[in-house]
TrEMBL record:
GO terms for cellular component: extracellular space. Keywords: Signal. The keyword NAD does not apply. Residues 1-20 form the signal peptide. Coiled coil: none annotated. It comes from the Eukaryota. This is IL9 protein. InterPro entries: IL-9. GO terms for molecular function: cytokine activity; interleukin-9 receptor binding.
Length: 135
């Protein structure tokens, strides 16, 4: 094996190991904070009401990514106009889940939750989860 082949293999392994732990922390924190400042995505959670906004899943430990995918998808469906930041968050969470990139969160691909919350509570859960990873 020559030196260029060895360096190629080492670089490939390095890239794979870096990619395997990609969680998109800074990007997700930035987008979530932007949404929390945007009052147009906020509405009350009423379990029985069929309104322009529904209650969103507050995930159990180990099911964060799957619930973040479900919650952002619900936000997109219930927000009559497509919100570019919500769209970006949804596709980021979906990619992380599909590719199993963030080992700290992707323990299950099914959203499990005991409670639901309004948009603000859901976004604060995302923010708190990613701030813990960022420590």
């Amino acid at each position: 094996m020559n030196a260029s082949m060895l360096s190629y293999i080492l670089l490939s392994c390095l890239l794979l190991s870096v990619q395997a732990e990609y969680c998109g922390v800074q990007e997700i924190i930035r987008y979530t904070e932007r949404l929390l400042d945007d009052s147009s995505v906020s509405c009350p959670c009423r379990q029985t009401a069929v309104s322009s906004c529904s209650c969103l899943p507050i995930p159990e430990r180990g099911h964060e990514l799957a619930c973040f995918v479900n919650g952002t998808k619900l936000l997109l469906e219930n927000n009559n106009s497509s919100h570019p930041v919500i769209t970006r968050l949804y596709w980021t969470f979906q990619a992380l889940l599909d590719r199993n990139l963030c080992k700290r969160l992707a323990h299950g691909d099914e959203c499990q939750y005991e409670t639901k919350g309004n948009v603000t509570e859901f976004l604060k859960t995302i923010l708190t989860t990613y701030q813990e990873i960022n420590k």
